[in-house]
Amino acid sequence: MSYTLYIGDRRFSTWSMRGWLMLAAFDIPHRSQLVGLYSGSMADDLAHMPLARLVPVLEMSDGRYTQDSLAMAETLHEENPGAGLWPSRADHRLRARWMVGEMHSGFSHIRNDCPGDLLGQIEGFKPSQGVLDDLARVEALFASAWAMDGTEGGWLFGDYSLADVFFAPLAGRIATYNLPVSKATQAYVQRHLNHSLFRQWRAMGLTKTYEPCPYYPELTRGAWPGPAAITAQACLSGPAENATCPYSGDPVTDFLTIDGRVFGFCNAFCRDKTVIDPAAWPDFMALYNR
Q1: Which of residues 79, 103, 124 is at a domain's end?
Q2: What confidence tens digit (pLDDT) does each residue in 163-221 have?
Q3: Domain extent at residue 266
């Protein structure tokens, strides 16, 4: 079975991030299709799936589709039982499903007050009491997971699982709004920010700019608290060190430069996502380090 995942703008759409991570992190074959969440074309983009109204939407190669991220998670687990989406231990799965369900339906103050935005850390944000209460609940859940033979500050149940997928956008919100959390939770947040797939999602999201920003345009955005990126710049022409794109294998047409070296890509999107965070992309780094 293969899948098509319909997603909204990566910089802002936290539910889309969950859908993509649950496919990408477990090596489930898929392709992503961006729909017009902010441009207004979403209804037309999803028209061939008449019940789909929100993103993400998962379409199966046999024509079935489902919209809700929790439904997507369970469907993928059923159809890919060896992928390891849920923890292997029964007691871990029980707690993981509880935490995923609560994340799916709860924490309304953080959702409403801290909309997803992966550009940079917002300066001067003052969390409400509701946000602080939500954070206290999050930390209690994290502590309960780490107490079950987990490592404090590590993935919630040892290996990366759907529990971490569902809390990844929350980690992004804590980083974006510099929300006050314990050292253990901050270590968990940093683990997400360092995760190559999280970095890839953010890099793809930042290939598109928004003026003005739809959320808190009056607040200053400082540096992103994730790993420092290798400095790269788009350039107009080659010659490049490589004749084919490190991602697609197609002939190169677009270029970037790092420290005087020029690398080529098959389109502007491949180039731009690499410019934003070169080290997030193992296929590019294999070329860069050879």
Answers
A1: 79
A2: 999 999 999 999 999 999 999 999 999 999 999 999 999 999 999 998 888 899 999 99
A3: 233-288
